[in-house]
Amino acid sequence: MKPKAFDYLKVSSAEEALAALAQGGEDARIIAGGLSLMPMLNFRLAEPSVLIDISKIDSLNYIRETGGSVEIGAATRQADLMRWDGLERKLPLLHAACPYIGHYQTRAKGTVCGSLSHADPSSELPLCMAVLGGEVDLQSATGKRTLAADQFQTGMLSTAKQTGEMLVAARYPTAKSGEGYAFTEMAQRRGDFAIVALAAVVNANKIKLGIGGVADKPTVREWDVLEGDALDDALNEFAWDLGGYDDIHATARYRRELVRRLGRRVIEEAKSCRS
Amino acid sequence: MADVAEVKKYLGQPIERVEDDILLMGKAQFSDHLPTRAGTQHAAILRSPHAHAKIISIDTSKAEKIPGVVTVMTGDDVKEMSEAFLIVLRQPINQWALAVDKVRYVGEPLAMVVARNRYIAEDALSEIDVVYEAMKPIIDQEEAISDDAPIVHEAVGSNVVSTRDFTYGEPDKAFAEADKIVKMTVRYPRNSQTPLEGFVVTADYHQGENLYDVASNYQGPFTSHPVMSMALRVKNSQLRMRTPQWSGGGFGVKVQIFPYVVLMCLASKKTGKPVKWVEDKLEHLSAAAAAPNRLVQMEAAVKNDGTVTGFRFDQQDDYGAFLRAPMPGPLYRMHGILTGAYDIKHLSVTNRVVMTNKCPGAMVRGFGGPQMYYAIERIMQKVAIELDMDPLDVIRKNVVPAGVFPYRAAAGALIDSGDYPAAIEQAVNEGALNELKKHRDEMRAAGKKYGIGYAVIVEPAQSNMGYLSNILPRDERQRNPKGGAVANATVNVDPLGTVSVTADSIPQGQGHMTILSQIVADVLGLTPDHIKVNLDFDTAKDAWSIATGNYSSRFSSATTVACLKAAEKVKAKLSRIASQTLNVPAEKLEFVDGKIRDPANPENGINFYRAAGTAHWTPGNLPDDMEPCVRETGSWSPPELESPNEKDQINTSLTYGFVFDFCGVEIDQDTGEVRIDKYVTMHDSGTILNPLLAEGQVHGAFAWAVGCALYEEFVYGDDGSFLTGTFADYLVPTCWEIPEPQIVHMESPSMVTPLGAKGIAEGNCMSTPVCLANAVADALDVEDITLPMTPSRIGAMIHGEEKPPANNKPVAAAPIKGQGNVLRGTGDTFVPADPQEVWNTLLDPEALASVIPGCHKLDLVGENSYQADVSLGVGPVRGRFKANVALTEMVEPEKATLSGGLIGPLGASQGSGHVSLSAAEGGTKVTYDYAIELTGTVASVGGRLLKGAAKALVNQFFQRLGAQVGGTPDTGEASWWRKLLRSLGLAK
Q1: 3-class SS at B716?
Q2: Could you tell me if A267 and A231 are in contact, meaning their C-beta atoms sit under 8 angstroms apart?
Q3: Residues 893-932 of B with CB under 8 A from A
Q4: Among A64-78, B709-723, B947-961, the least confident range
Q5: What is the full DSSP assignment across B645-666?
Q6: ipTM of the complex
Q7: Helices (DSSP H) in B680-723: which residue ranges?
């Protein structure tokens, strides 16, 4: 498994990265942690002409609060997010979700924005962004734009990012008082791709449940606060609407059942966590 | 019987391993680290994306032109330069190092590029053009035996390549007289203990000497050495096999490296330079090795009091596409001990060897044991259930009793020693079984699903080299009887008295250097760190035989004994030398603390190194009949390992340990996960040579066994595509998934080996999978348990009827039963043009070329039949393919069937779909459905994403059709991303 020849550019500013992207065209790719991209190169499933390494761009390595959100720069590692001392208070959903992201070793290199760009349907960071209603900043040599989560994530491994654009920052809304958050995931081994990932946000009036790993991208549904059978019925409907699929690890039926059972669990947990 | 050695100072002690510092600090030199000669070239292998296909042509001309490529070889070259590999069965199953005429499994090597480096070699692989004629593959072992199944080897005429029946005692009588006959059908899955380090081969052909010099991580048994030399058409001495003493795991798998050794030898012969090949993980998982999956229809003849009087086995092992030596070992290695731990005198066996279009079956740790005990211990649980008895009471009633050893089992195993009832009691007490039972009751009272399982096994070690000959009827095997198991080791004392040891083990991290240093230290009165053990192996320099290597847990009973003998010879020689100086008879001298001395008068002694020095520095002072130097080789083959007798009985192994396991599991009722709450495992492996190493072996076998029980399986699609090509899909458990077992020990020394030690390396891989299955069966009160017991499978057993959707709402994508990995979908789109216009577009090559995603070129090659060059991908994944598409069953302008295939470096695909056009307001409604089979790299690594990707691609096609016909054609110049966005309706 050796990749096809490619050029490698280590850049130290966002401008350099964008200039290189513009020049490289469709076959240029940004690399930060490389944890999803390098295996693809080694399998020759992807053959970029140039890799632009943004992992050492200091100006993109930050976590800061802005308005009602926490903004995370493109060079910020997942491990750094986990170590951020505001995580539990400000982003309790991510605090619950981060331990499920890959492994301790991969989180040392993998970046938050890299995971969002990669848009794997099972990934935790895109799911949290969908449920919390976050947004991303896309920048190119010619301009900048901001997209909401549901505009950015378009499908399996696909985002609205266009050729020449780079994801420079992501923003997750901070926790609101009166809201409870919970996250859980079912995978066969610790660190595996989720068979089903579930994130819940509950406040006095609404329940929001996001499901990853079942459809092409995270799917979020919102209800007025429900209990007992009504909640079970709503989860059942959600499960059937998602459908699920068979693969070697799990049947569609199993996936739907997890939506029902773990969906209930995670919603109850979020309710009990309300501040 | 061999003498049991005296109590030793170091042997039996928990001496820390000499290997650990080197391994943990990353200082070990594995095969890929070995220095290579200047000019060494590198190989990459082209592997079949099809499970079953004729090779029509291979065009290597483009590949050969790439700068840095030295040569490209195909099966035709290999067939000309070498012989087919010898196998034990006399069947026309011919295998060369590259596929000849046909490919028979996904991953089968069919061409090889040799280049300046591996990167260039892989560049060249994608330029090799192979034309295949795909054939229907046979994947399921049960379908493989039916009359209309595709045949893997036509010359044989059947997929069942060997059938043998065996009868011991009077099984028909036992079954006729039974109070009850208990029946069960079990299936054991296909898996492997995948080593961290794959195959590595560097072959160097020395033209002047007509000698092949190979450095690799081959692990033996060296029965395959002559297989290689004969394939290469050279004498055995012209194939020099060298292996380093550091290997990143073998587990039996690295005997299967031999076809690649031959392949690299031929490459080196052709290019005149050394050729190196390092296997990657995708190659390994798809094509290196798989323990055969087994179907067993089993019967037990039972008395009402729980006594089992007879077993009937109908066993069928699936060896995939080829039998590589030593296959079909797993079906015969355990033969003598088919009655397990039980005192059963009547046995009937039918063994079938079946071929399918899958990776060739292999020697893997356990070597038939996991499969055999799964059948035995599952049926013994069923016996207990049917008699309403405690399973442990049924076990106690039937195990071989104490005091009868050595015990000759019905099929020929000579069980050396043991006390099974005592071992069981010890484990029950130390493991607190009674408390576990109470705990189960409490859990059940609280509504939980909790179960207890048991398993007893007899663990054989050190194979009788004649074990495979039992596959031949008696008159055939008489011509060339095989038996025994030869071990060799050499102890050398140099001019300054330092001791070095070499031996015929090829270690993979078990700690053999440590144990050998303990043995020699004890014999010679030195400390272990004075003994330098080197286990690098070289057939040109070291003593070896067909049994050389590391497999079947032979080290503890074989290599150790050879080493002991060598050390004792050294001791005898040095005693005679010292005796001259000390004037004490040689046999009275003792070796203690670096001295050779008179025990009656310890002052009268000389230093060890002085005695040894005499043999080098002053050979004239040696006794007249004594040769100079101190270098002794010990060789040993135990007499108990005879060829099968005229009744087909054979003592298939030398030593037999005993393992008794019990465990408690809880099933999560929401997720179906199996949680191992408690696991107790009792081991009687004879005399323990080093408790730290013994525990390491138990942990290792247990860890893999948990993998086999809950996580690991090689999965194939019905089309033969290989679906577990990465460790994201072939799930090897990590430390989080493995609980700590409670290990209980007992030592019944073996009297057939001087050190009393039995093998300990395999036990839990035979006992733990079935013990866990029994516990889950107990928890869920079900009979049909298939490994691995994944959450989804268990969920299906416990979740009951699914709650239907409310109000008859239509459900999304219903799951398809049967054809598991055919990607299916349906959809529709609206095109603002009338049906005739849409129809014309479908039939217009130029228009079609702009509609097919990523199409570079489209040619009409026949009536309504096209060939295209396309680049296809989803997200960042993209590859180039040759496509052929045909339109049939056409009803203008209403409907057509499209069918075709794709082939490219990333994989191959066959598919078909239907398109219907119906007039709608303002245009045409286009309705479509498709079914696509996908195989190759993309199928092996992309598994979980394939359905979505296929859907995205098909949707692209039809969206683009709409755009094309609707008057907004794509130009070829637009960026791929833009095309995708447009096709998804997100951009103009």
Answers
A1: strand
A2: yes
A3: 905-906
A4: B947-961
A5: -TTS----EEEEEEEEEEEEEE
A6: 0.95
A7: 691-710
Whole-number Å distance between alpha carbons of B988 and B979: 9
Residue among B281, B274, B266 nearest B72 (CA): B266
pLDDT at B866: 79
Q: Is the confidence at residue B228, as pLDDT, over 80?
A: yes
pLDDT tens column, B337-373: 999 999 999 999 999 999 999 999 999 999 999 999 9
Of A154, A157, A258, the CB nearest to B986: A154
Q: What's the pLDDT band for B947 if we cut at 50, 70, 90?
A: low
The yes-or-no verdict on residue B970 having pLDDT over 60 is: no
Chain A residue with minimum CA distance to B46: A1
Q: Which two tokens stand for residue B866?
A: 């096209």
A62, A127, B654 from B270: Cα distances, Å:
57, 55, 44
- Rounded to a whole number, what is the distance in Å from the CA of B476 to chain A's nearest CA? 44
Helices (H), A11-77: 14-24, 37-42
Which residue, among A97, A131, A96, A101, has the nearest Cα to A118 in the 3D structure?
A101
Per-residue pLDDT at B811: 56
Contact A119 B875 (CB under 8 A): yes
| Residues A234, A226 contacting (CB under 8 angstroms) | yes
pTM of the model: 0.92
Cα–Cα distance, B915 to B689 (Å, whole number) = 71
Q: Which two tokens stand for residue B409?
A: 């089992």
CB neighbour list of residue B611: distance below 8 Å, 6 or more residues apart: B497, B574, B577, B578, B581, B596
For residues B226-253, give the mean pLDDT: 96
Percentage of chain B beyond pLDDT 90 is: 75
Q: Is some CB atom of chain A closer than 8 A to the CB atom of B731?
A: yes
The backbone region for B748, taken as left when phi is positive above 0, alpha when psi lies in -120 to 50, beta otherwise, is: beta
What separation in angstroms does the CA of B512 have from each of B245, B331, B546, B554, B563? 10, 28, 20, 11, 11
Pairing verdict, β A153-155 and B907-920: unpaired
| SS3 of residue B674 by DSSP | strand
Burial B309-339 (b: 16+ CB within 10 A, else e): bbbbbbbbbbbbbbbbbbbbbbbbbbbbbbb
Q: Rounded to an integer, what distance in angstroms lies between the CA atom of residue B128 and that of residue B782?
A: 52
Task: Assess whether pLDDT exceeds 60 at residue B2.
Answer: no
Q: How far does B975 lie from chain A, in Å, by closest CA?
A: 7
Residue at B75: amino acid letter: G
Residue B778: which H helix or E strand, with range?
A: helix B763-780
Q: Which alpha helices (DSSP H) does chain A contain, by range?
A: 14-24, 37-42, 78-83, 87-90, 92-97, 104-109, 112-118, 124-132, 149-152, 228-242, 252-272
Contact between B257 and B217 under an 8 Å Cβ cutoff? The reply is yes
Percent of chain A with pLDDT over 70: 100
Q: What is the DSSP string of B429-494?
A: HHTTHHHHHHHHHHHHHTT-EEEEEEEEEEEEEEE-TTGGGGGS-HHHHHTS------EEEEEEE-
Q: How far apart are CA A158 and CA B984, in angstroms?
A: 11
pLDDT of residue B854: 74
In angstroms, what separates the C-alpha of B22 from chain A's closest C-alpha? 23
A260:B803 CB<8 A: yes
Q: From CA B682, how far away is CA B692, in angstroms rounded?
A: 16
Q: Looking at residues B975-979, what average pLDDT do you find?
A: 41
Provide DSSP, B346-409.
EEEEEEEEE--SSSPB---TTTTHHHHHHHHHHHHHHHHHHHT--HHHHHHHHBPPTT--SEE-
Contacts for A194 with CB less than 8 Å, ≥ 6 apart: A100, A122, A124, A185, A186, A187, A212, A213
> Could you give all domains of chain A from N- to C-terminal order, each with its CATH number?
7-53 (3.30.43.10), 58-173 (3.30.465.10), 180-272 (3.30.390.50)
